[in-house]
Amino acid sequence: MGATVYMADLRTTHKHNLFAKIERLLEAMGLENGVESGFLTAIKLHFGEEGNASFIRPIFVRPVVEAVRKLEGRPFVTDTNTLYVGSRSDAPSHLETAMRHGFNFPVLGAPVLIADGLKGRSVRSVAVGLKHFQEVKIAAEICSADAMIVLTHFKGHELTGFGGALKNLGMGCAGREGKLAQHSNISPKVVRKRCVGCGHCLEWCPAGAIHIDAESGRAVIDNQVCVGCGECIVVCPQKAVNIRWNESVPVFQEKMMEYAYGACRGKRERCFFINFVLQVSPACDCYGHNDMPVVADLGILAATDPVALDQACCDLVVAAPGMPGSVLGDRLAPGVDKFAAVYPEIEWRSQLAYAEEIGLGSREYQLEKL
Q1: Which of 2, 75, 111, 247 has its CB surrounded by the most CB atoms within 10 Å?
Q2: Residues 202 and 111 in one domain
Q3: How confident is the model at residue 206 (pLDDT cuts 50, 70, 90)?
Q4: Contact 327/316 with Cβ under 8 angstroms?
Q5: CA separation for the pair 155, 314 (Å, rounded)
Q6: Number of Cβ within a 10 Å radius of residue 334
Q7: Cβ(61)–Cβ(45) below 8 Å
């Protein structure tokens, strides 16, 4: 039978708005079974990079906070620092970005903190005993939380095809050391005939792994220094930097699933997941921009099973007609794999299969519309 995935569409009335629908999703998942009086409850989300506008609206977080408080839990809203250098790479700049984006106490009704400390080094080792990792490095305050509600903006992603609850768990709950451990085997390549030596990729590279070759005038990536963050792929104006299509990408996806496993270890039955399938941008909210959505807004989905939830969201996006004028071009027909259309070399289903294999959840689901 699989897991139940609950879905709220975007139709509203004056008596039943989107905030009420979020409350119903939490009730349907049985939040009261996971949050007890005094429970420190992490509300994990992504505050959005400076310049990005597709992250979850802060006002959608408020009913989640209120639901936790109604159960006498103690909510806090949180994220972890980034591996790359940007507006969220240390706690002070991260908190400033969060506040500029509206994530503050007057809006949320809960404090905001960065789960892995000042520089992303506040972590705990969590034993997982899986194929790639015997232990994973999870943000300390995620580990310390008694319960967790993971709120995710569902979108595309250049290394995983899509970014959903599992990525929010695996990459989003890891400290900097854990993020590096997941990325470290992936090194992009430069297509020399496209590269014009503009140097834009150098400005974005957090590891200083790229230089312009004096003889050819083309960018060169040092594979020994590259941390595999993928920034250069998206920012290159000439599309001259590509993922090196080898086993590293599937390995990266598996590593991320093992970190997702570790992130909810010890409180798996007290973890709840909500995906906002709204403004489905083709790339991650970690970029300081967001392209137009690839499909229209589809709804808000929730489940206690993150694998089933992500599978359901993927199925909805694939089944939906594409957005004219988007990066999809003419690949707009319902049923066209939107993720493969944008990232044709990514096999996004493999991460779901591996997540199911290691016991994170089931790809089988029943969709129940509220």
Answers
A1: 75
A2: no
A3: confident
A4: no
A5: 9
A6: 10
A7: yes
Give the rounded distance of the alpha carbon of 248 from its chain centre: 19
Q: Are residues 214 and 129 in the same domain?
A: no
Domain count, the chain: 2
Is the same domain home to 265 and 337?
Answer: yes
* pTM, full prediction: 0.88
Report the half-sphere exposure of 188 (CA within 13 A, side-chain side): 26
CA distance linking residue 323 with residue 307, whole number of Å: 26
CATH assignment at residue 226: 3.30.70.20
Report the distance separating Cα 124 and Cα 2, nearest Å.
Answer: 32
Q: How far apart are CA 125 and CA 135, in angstroms?
A: 6
Residue labelled with tokens 């991460």: 351
Q: Is 112 helix (H, G, I), strand (E, B) or coil?
A: strand
Q: Are residues 286 and 258 in the same domain?
A: yes
Tokens of 272: 């709840």
Residue-number span of the structural domain to which 235 is assigned: 189-242
- The CATH code of the domain that includes 350 is 3.40.50.11440
Beta bridge partners of 114: 79
pLDDT digits (tens, 9 = 90+) for 272-304: 999 999 999 999 999 999 999 999 999 999 999
* Coil, strand or helix at 137: strand
**What is the enclosing helix (H) or strand (E) of 9?**
none
